[in-house]
Sequence to fold (393 residues):
Amino acid sequence: MYSLSRRGLLGVGAGIAAASAVAVSTSHTTTTPAAALRRTHGDDTIPFHGAHQAGIETPLTQRVAHLVFALKPDSDYVRIANMLRLLTDDAARLSRGMAPVADSEPELAVAPARLTVTFGFGRELVARTGASVPQWLGPLPSFSVDRLRTEWTGGDLLITLQCDDALTLEHAARVLTRDTRFFCEPAYAYRGFLPAHDSHAEGTTPRNLFGQVDGTVNPVPGSDDFAGVVWIDDDSWLRGGSSFVLRRIDMDLDKWDTLDRPDRERSVGRTLATGAPLGGRAEYDEPDFEARNTLGMRVIPDFAHMRRARMADRSQRIARRGHSFVDTIDGATVSGLLFGSFQRDVTAQFVPIQRSLDQVDLLNTWTTPVGSAVFAIAPGCSEGGFIGETLFD
Ligand code: HEM
Fold:
């Protein structure tokens, strides 16, 4: 008999635990108890319940799936409530590493690996419940850079899954998709990624497929600043919730390859090596937007993405949460960014930034938005409640 508890092994380094693992044979099975009991990253969980939904202010994970659904014509407010209860129950269980009741592959749920599930609602879903529809919930104004494809536009229900383990994520995605079956049709889905967990020092800002450090200037999770940018605090059903803009932006890597390094750096206004602002030394140095070189030209050009994306009105800020994607369409590889941003108010915060980028942004030369949607992000719920319950108050 082994009396070592799971907890007792938490502090044991992986190498030591592996070295002390003892193969034990019984008449039925062969196991290595120490290895089996050793705590892995797969055991790590992010709480599902709380004032806010998980997956917004919680750490970035390696994988994301954004699943978008269209409500069936007969899904009225009673059916919507039933669906959201079902989805909430299963999402909460999966986030803990527990298989939902009717799961036919329960073994695929045991390593949550920081799985989070975040639900968003399109205009039609909110309208069918009779709750107030925020003015910003609907298609974005059109932008000249847009080449939107209808199959990647809009949607009534968004389920965003984030996880460090692709197998866990895909299993959870399938279970939750099954829950929607009587109420919705799948509309479209995106899958994206970030650098692997632990492949870089903790706190390293990820890079995108252009090789740029992407995510430096962003509200810090857990700060008052983040709360001010992201969480809705009016008296509506969305109190404690937010809004989410999701845009599929194709990136032309072949065209980008033809550009020399200084021009690449000028297109954003930051160095590729460290992500430092041009003229600065380290990633988090404050950019000097007034600095000029010996020829009298601006060090951070007028057309640089960073300059164009930084609004003089500091209330016009967003919390970006993007992921790279690589897709195969008609045999061709297509790469890009699943751009995501949370903000209290899409019209007041996201739209002015996108307008500024639409007017001038050198990055537009290599990037094309092809999908676009806006979702209302309900507040979180406590145990026994369900995501979206405030819609029915
Ligand atoms: C494929 C498309 C895009 C790429 C490759 C990209 C890349 C970058 C990079 C490398 C930075 C500098 C580092 C950082 O602070 O994160 C940056 C900053 C930023 N981007 Fe983008 N971006 C894209 C699209 C967008 C869009 C669509 C928006 C919003 C409409 C946006 C808003 C911002 C903001 C607000 C900043 C911070 C600006 C500041 O310094 O205050 N980006 N982006």
User: Anything to note?
Assistant: Residues 1-30 have pLDDT under 50 and may be disordered. The pocket of protoporphyrin IX containing FE is lined by residues 208, 210, 212-217, 249, 251, 268, 270, 305-306, 309-310, 318, 337, 339, 353-354, 357, 363, 367 (CB under 6 Å). The radius of gyration is 23 Å.
